[in-house]
């Protein structure tokens, strides 16, 4: 063969290989950046016979350190030293049977300020929404040809409904106007599953958003648009399991990529086994290695290649999409040491970035075990800054209905708050009335019409310690109970679909009661924004059992807010003597009504189930 024709053939093969690589999404991550803290880059290539032949790279500034072949002939792992990498394009090259094929790769230049991005904290309020159920901005993407669930059915609670990124992008003004500061999306990554794919927790491609929401570029544009409106973006991630249609499972790189790789063994869901000092080996293994459900096999995070893959994936999304936070699903179901390492490595790359782990326990001690610097897990450290305060949620489900008496009513909240002694950092607890997995705070329409209950709960949520999270629709009193099915907790936001009878995104489309609820939440959210007493302040509270009134002070740098919640259905004239230590002046502005209250008589008039927020 003449040299010129050999070169032509090589070029043709290269061109073919490049086209194939672009359409198959078979190189993870599809690109990376120069100048990251971690000196190592893992590249997982899944292509027919990827493991065959001799592999090299043509990079000038990155160096191929290690090539790892696994059990599948179609998977190949490369480990590159990128400690001295500069932005550059290069090829990954195979030589086999005298033929040369290649895939282009790129180390990009990082955006300025990427490392310094600000995470979320108690100055923020998160708005959680499920992308399939919030708003359908593009009916053309409802059914994507070739995907396993290629239809929508709004009458089916477990079917896809068609919501997407454009729907959210078009409603960012609504979300921003409400006064929240961050949007937490239920998972947006591809879920190419036969059914039930709408909730997003069965990922089939860690590097691609679900096309029924839009393209990767659309998610980046949505994040940019949110930022332009002063809203942070929090991405939901799942390291514990993936969808059974993921290539990882259908063509396993190696058997030990998964726990129980050969057959479905369900987790016991008892993640108390993570901290239980009396735990049996059997129980711990069943809880942590068992699968979540039969179509969500359990990833083995103790496999160092799996660990590296997941860690890098999260960093890729932070860098690529510019997100501000991560919510980690089923955090305690995964390997403690790997999750700890993940949190540390993310913080190494982005020192102020924040992650909230789903720590679903009914007791504060179990949750505290998972918070960064916990004495309970020492000498181990989870490095997880934010954990979820489920016990407070369970207390709030009842506290605003019951008469405060003995251990009931607002005393439930007092007792939970008193247990803050177990937390290294109570200000980094996520606080919430409900979420996509729980009964809505308004379980029924009747409960939604209990205005006092709503007003007390929202006031408490937005003034207590920690980072409040609001589930979409709470502001318009959407009601649902878990007993009626998880899909009912995730109903469509009215007005999000073309032709909807009601459009609750506008005042004219809301009922009077919905407008009252919306306006009330909005007023408190707007007031909370930038309020340092709430975002950074100390918490001092008063036992509610004598009067049934729960009172607490938030104070920072000489400014304070003092909240009074009447936990009884009786009007009361409250003697202020016990509260003198938090009442620095004899008059204060009340935030909800905007009136000035005279405290010089030493009395405070409280209506049944009243809530007052005094600002000093
Ligand atoms: Ca759509």
Topology:
Layout: H1 3-24, E1 27-28, E2 32-33, E3 40-46, E4 54-57, E5 63-69, E6 75-81, E7 88-96, E8 99-108, E9 126-129, H2 131-134, H3 165-170, H4 172-178, E10 182-185, E11 189-190, E12 205-209, H5 216-228, E13 232-237, H6 247-250, H7 281-289, H8 304-321, E14 325-328, H9 336-349, E15 354-357, H10 364-368, E16 386-388, H11 390-399, H12 411-418, E17 429-432, H13 445-448, H14 451-463, E18 467-471, H15 512-528, H16 532-536, E19 538-542, E20 549-556, E21 559-566, E22 572-575, E23 587-590, E24 596-598, E25 603-606, E26 611-615
Parallel strand pairs: 2-8, 9-10, 9-18, 10-13, 13-14, 14-15, 15-16, 16-17, 17-18
Antiparallel strand pairs: 1-3, 3-6, 4-7, 5-6, 7-8, 11-12, 19-20, 20-21, 21-26, 22-25, 23-24, 23-26
Bound molecules: calcium ion.
Residues 136, 138-139, 141-142, 162, 164 line the site of calcium ion.
Walkthrough of the structure:
With 616 residues, the protein is of the alpha/beta class. Among the domains are: 16-110, Immunoglobulin-like (Sandwich), CATH 2.60.40; 131-173 and 189-226, no CATH class; 537-615, Immunoglobulin-like. An eight-stranded parallel beta barrel has the order 9-10-13-14-15-16-17-18. Helix 8 (304-321) packs parallel to helix 9 (336-349), helix 11 (390-399) packs antiparallel against helix 12 (411-418) and helix 14 (451-463) runs parallel beside helix 15 (512-528). The termini are far apart. The model is unreliable at 1-24 (pLDDT under 50). Bound molecules: calcium ion. Calcium ion binds next to loops. The site of calcium ion (CA) has 7 residues, from loops.
């Amino acid at each position: 063969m003449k040299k010129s024709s050999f070169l032509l053939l090589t070029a043709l093969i290269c061109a073919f290989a490049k086209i194939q690589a672009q359409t198959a999404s078979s190189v993870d991550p599809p690109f990376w950046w120069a100048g990251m803290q971690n000196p190592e880059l893992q590249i997982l290539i899944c292509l027919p016979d990827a493991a065959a032949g001799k592999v090299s790279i043509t990079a000038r500034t990155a160096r191929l350190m290690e090539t790892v072949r696994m059990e599948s002939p179609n998977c190949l792992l490369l480990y590159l030293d990128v400690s001295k990498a500069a932005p550059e394009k290069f090829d990954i090259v195979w030589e086999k049977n005298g033929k040369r094929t290649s895939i282009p790769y790129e180390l990009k230049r990082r955006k300025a300020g990427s490392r310094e991005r600000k995470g979320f904290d108690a100055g923020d309020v998160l708005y959680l929404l499920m992308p399939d159920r919030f708003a359908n901005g593009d009916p053309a993407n409802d059914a994507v040809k070739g995907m396993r669930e290629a239809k929508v059915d709004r009458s089916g609670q477990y079917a896809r409904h068609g919501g997407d990124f454009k729907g959210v992008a078009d409603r960012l003004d609504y979300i921003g106007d409400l006064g929240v500061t961050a949007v937490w999306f239920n998972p947006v990554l591809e879920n190419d599953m036969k059914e039930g794919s709408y909730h997003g927790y069965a990922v089939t491609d860690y590097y691609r958003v679900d096309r029924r929401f839009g393209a990767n570029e659309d998610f980046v544009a949505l994040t940019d648009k949110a930022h332009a409106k002063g809203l942070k973006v929090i991405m939901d991630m799942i390291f514990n399991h993936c969808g059974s249609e993921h290539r990882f499972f259908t063509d396993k790189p190696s058997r030990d990529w998964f726990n129980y790789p050969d057959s479905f063994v369900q987790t016991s869901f008892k993640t108390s086994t993570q901290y239980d000092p009396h735990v049996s080996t059997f129980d711990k293994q069943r809880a942590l290695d068992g699968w979540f459900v039969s179509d969500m096999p359990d990833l083995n995070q103790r496999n160092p290649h799996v660990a590296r893959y997941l860690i890098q994936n999260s960093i890729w999304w932070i860098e690529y999409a510019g997100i501000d936070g991560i919510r980690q699903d089923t955090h305690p179901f995964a390997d403690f040491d790997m999750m700890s390492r993940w949190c540390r490595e993310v913080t190494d790359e982005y020192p102020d970035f924040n992650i909230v782990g789903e720590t679903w326990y009914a007791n504060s001690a179990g949750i505290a075990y998972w918070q960064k610097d916990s004495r309970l897990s020492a000498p181990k450290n989870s490095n997880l800054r934010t954990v979820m305060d489920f016990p407070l949620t369970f207390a709030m489900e009842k506290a605003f209905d019951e008469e405060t008496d003995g251990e009931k009513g607002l005393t439930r909240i007092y007792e939970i708050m008193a247990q803050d002694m177990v937390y290294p950092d109570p200000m980094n607890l996520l606080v919430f009335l409900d979420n996509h997995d729980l009964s809505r705070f308004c379980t029924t329409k009747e409960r939604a019409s209990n205005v006092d209950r709503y007003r007390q709960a929202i006031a408490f949520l937005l003034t207590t310690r920690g980072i409040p999270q609001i589930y979409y629709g709470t502001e318009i009193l959407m009601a649902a109970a878990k007993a009626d099915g998880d899909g009912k907790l995730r109903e469509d936001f009215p007005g999000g679909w073309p032709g909807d009878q009601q459009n609750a995104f506008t005042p004219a489309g809301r009922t009077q009661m919905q407008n009252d609820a919306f306006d009330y939440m909005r007023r408190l959210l707007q007031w909370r924004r930038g309020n340092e007493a709430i975002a950074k302040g100390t918490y001092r509270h008063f036992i509610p059992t004598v009067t049934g009134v729960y009172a607490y002070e938030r104070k920072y740098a000489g400014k304070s807010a003092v909240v009074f919640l009447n936990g009884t259905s009786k009007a009361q004239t409250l003697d202020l003597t016990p509260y003198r230590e938090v009442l620095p002046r004899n008059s204060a502005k009340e935030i909800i009504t905007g009136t000035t209250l005279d405290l010089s008589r030493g009395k405070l008039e409280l209506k049944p189930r009243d809530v007052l927020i005094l600002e000093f």
